[in-house]
User: Fold this.
Amino acid sequence: MRNGKRKQTNMKYDKYLFHCSMLPLLTTKSRVKGELSETCKTELTKIWIESEYGRARDVTTKFTEKGIICEQDSIDLLNKKLASSFVKNTELLKNDYITGTPDIRDTAIWDIKTSWDLLSYVQSDFDKAKKTYYYQLLGYMALVGAKSGHIAYCLVDTPDSFIRDELYRFSFQHDPESAEYKEKEQEIIKNMKFGDIPEEKRVKIFDFEFDQKAIDEVYEKVKEWRKFLNDLHL
Assistant:
């Protein structure tokens, strides 16, 4: 108490909505019971810095860029496999805790993951999908009221611009007219184009069910996340 007035607690983030894509990192388990994990604290701090000072770390990589650029190609490939007619969802959804835009909004939720190359596609499996993306999918299911959701890994051709970038870097050390350069060009094209693999083998689908208890636990965590944001300062 000072001058008879009660100190006001910062409440700026009391209604902050967390994007579903953030949930996998925010929900990581802490080594210390009852505390937020260090990964969670780091992600919350990033949110706070961007909100307070307009500064965000650029986390764009060639892997995420391909995912963004080739999303429609992946949806088209999924439609061919399922003989479906899914279209990209663009509606931003929200409730009192979370917000997000699921890739495909149907009777179930579909989240599209575009694999970078054949290795990453082959290595994708149910356990990795659950560990890495389940909470994101869970959030989307909660926003829509869906009882089930699917994560679809799709292997589609990498845009030619990526191939040109790889060759441009290689050209610093090798003459574009050299045999080494020509060999590298064919190697890169083969590693980034997948037309020789049947389309039905280039989609993996992993199915998940909605879990009310799990999303209720997320909503309880939101209160802690908001408090952490309110308490942050330079």
User: Anything to note?
Assistant: Residues 81 and 200 are 6 Å apart (CA to CA).
